[in-house]
Each structure stands twice: as structure tokens, then as C-alpha cells.
Write a structure and sequence with these properties.
The chain has six helices and no strands. The protein is mainly alpha-helical and 130 residues long. The chain is elongated and about 80 Å long.
Length: 130
């Protein structure tokens, strides 16, 4: 904006006009786009984390018991973890009031992924040993 204004013969007048046009646009976006939906201020990450944790728990139980339905449950678990990671990334792009709370769950999300990988490795080793 500054480069265009400097090349213009009118000088800084165009920059002032653009600023005056931009400020109401920002206000409209904030008031119409964000304020009416208070639910968008909250992260849905805890619910996603709980769903992924349930899926990992079921998978762990079935994988270590050698149950026959493990491949489908493994795919479902990794899909739940992928959804959790996507929700985490989306939440981190939110304003600081939401993203700060989500950042606290990052170690738990990473640990849940590591647990799932370890359970999968143990189940594969158990299949090979059998």
C-alpha cells in the first residue's frame, strides 16, 4: 500500500483514504463474522481428544489380546488420531485465548500417538512370534 501511494502523485492522501476504508471493513468482519458465534471461541479439542483416547484404549485392549478384528480397529484408531491432529492444528490457528488452552494438550496428543505406535509395534511383534 505504501509503495503504491508513493508512486501516486496524490501522495499520502490515497493511503489515508484506504485506511479509512479498511478500518470499517475490519470492524464489520469482527462484528459479523466472529462475535455472533460464541461457540467458535471454544476449542472442540477436548472432545476430540476424549474420542481418540477411547479409540486408543479399545485398540490397545484388542491388539494386546490378539483379537481378530484388529486391522479395522487399528485403522479407526489412526483415523481418530488424524482427526485429533487436524483439530489441534485448526485450534492453534485460532486467537490466543483459544490456542493457549489447546497448547496445553499438545504433550498429551503426542503421547497418545506414541502409545498407539508402541501398541501397534507390540501387536506386530506378537503376530510374528506366534
Amino acid at each position: 500500500m505504501i509503495l503504491i501511494d508513493l508512486l501516486n502523485r496524490a501522495g499520502w492522501a490515497l493511503a489515508g483514504e484506504r485506511l479509512i476504508d479498511t478500518l470499517p471493513g475490519c470492524a464489520i468482519v469482527l462484528l459479523v463474522g466472529y462475535a455472533p458465534w460464541p461457540s467458535s471461541w471454544h476449542a472442540h479439542l477436548p472432545e476430540q481428544f476424549a474420542a481418540a483416547l477411547d479409540s486408543v484404549a479399545r485398540y490397545t485392549e484388542q491388539a494386546l489380546a490378539g483379537a481378530p478384528g484388529r486391522p479395522g480397529l487399528r485403522r479407526q484408531t489412526y483415523r481418530a488420531l488424524s482427526d485429533l491432529r487436524t483439530e489441534f492444528q485448526r485450534t492453534m490457528a485460532e486467537p490466543p485465548s483459544v490456542s493457549r488452552r489447546a497448547a496445553r494438550l499438545r504433550p498429551a496428543v503426542i503421547a497418545l500417538e506414541h502409545v498407539t505406535g508402541t501398541v501397534t509395534a507390540a501387536a506386530v511383534r506378537g503376530d510374528r512370534a506366534a
